[in-house]
Design a protein that fits this description.
Length: 246
């Protein structure tokens, strides 16, 4: 399910946030959920081996904005929208109800009023689909230095490791959520134009991701998980949210 949430500042003024605001949007989402669902996702989630998945992703904020690099701030003037995707219907229903029933929500220190929510579902019934990112796709591996220290290596679209890690991640999400083995067949992603690198600071951790338009090929059930739970890693932190490109 894809929810597009429309809101605007309660006082009619601008919305000013830090440029790196993912954690603020993530907090707003959790604060809008029923307590039991928020607790389940935050503390447990869907489990595959040692990995846990929240099974939701969200976009960058969309609207007219200006950036003040010196102040490290982004200011939105007028209405703002956000896309949240998930295959978990209880999550989707809880988020929509929580947002609509509250008199206002907070993004940072600004009180916002939700003016509308639209719900749509992209049904994938083919083994190839065109997608575009709504937030950067993050694919990485944690490696060891010769001295034993860990470091994070980020991969970009077109690299073999990018495709392999992305595919394995989708298979684990499918099994964690559906509790059955994923369908056989490889998943591949191909850039339709040069992807854009984004560098985001999430709670003092630097994260690298890529945005663009891609062709996604593979078994339809795995492509369905991709467009609903997100591609790559760190989806619930605001990465890998995609939609089918018309």
């Amino acid at each position: 399910m894809r929810e597009q949430i429309y809101f605007e500042p309660e006082n009619g003024g601008p919305l000013t946030l830090p440029i790196h605001y993912n954690h603020i949007v993530q907090a707003m989402i959790y604060n809008s959920l029923d307590d039991d669902i928020a607790h389940f996702l935050h503390e447990k989630g869907f489990i595959h081996g040692k990995r846990t998945f929240k099974m939701f992703a969200f976009s960058r904020l969309m609207g007219n904005y200006s950036i003040n690099k010196k102040a490290g701030a982004i200011t939105f003037n007028g209405p703002v929208s956000l896309v949240v995707t998930s295959p978990y219907s209880n999550f989707c229903n809880s988020l929509a109800n929580g947002l609509l029933l509250k008199p206002n929500i907070r993004l940072g220190t600004t009180k916002m009023q939700v003016t509308d929510i639209t719900l749509e579902k992209d049904l994938i019934d083919d083994e190839k689909t065109k997608i575009r990112t709504l937030s950067p796709i993050v694919v990485y591996s944690t490696l060891l230095r010769p001295d034993g220290r860990k470091y994070t290596c980020y991969f970009e679209p077109g690299e073999n490791d990018f495709n392999e890690i992305m595919q394995n991640n989708l298979r684990k999400k499918y099994k964690a959520f559906h509790e059955v083995e994923p369908p056989a067949g490889n998943v591949s992603i191909t850039s339709l134009r040069q992807p854009r690198l984004s560098i985001i600071n999430y709670k003092n951790t630097v994260i690298k991701g890529y945005s663009g338009t891609f062709t996604l090929s593979g078994p339809a059930p795995l492509l369905q998980i991709a467009v609903e739970s997100g591609l790559g890693s760190k989806n619930s932190q605001g990465f890998g949210c995609v939609r089918v490109a018309k």
